[in-house]
Amino acid sequence: MSVMPRTSTTPQTPAPLSRRFSVAPMMDWTTPHFRYLARILSRHTLLYTEMVTTGALIHGDTERFLRHDPAEYPLALQLGGSDAGELAHCAKLAEQFGFDEVNLNVGCPSDRVQNNMIGACLMGHPDKVAEGVAAMIEATELPVTVKHRIGIDGRESWEDLCEFIETVSAAGCRTFIVHARIAILEGLSPKENRDIPPLKYDWVYRLKQAYPDLEIIINGGIKTFDECHEHLRHTDGVMLGREAYHNPWLLAGVDPVFFGEGAPVQSRHEALRTMLPFIERELERGVYLTHMSRHLLGLFHGMPGGRQFRRYISENAHKPGAGIEVIETALGKVREPEAPAIAEA
Ligand SMILES: Cc1cc2nc3c(=O)[nH]c(=O)nc-3n(C[C@H](O)[C@H](O)[C@H](O)COP(=O)(O)O)c2cc1C
Question: Which of 23, 27, 245 to probe ligand 1 with, by most ligand atoms within 8 A of CB?
Answer without folding.
Answer: 27
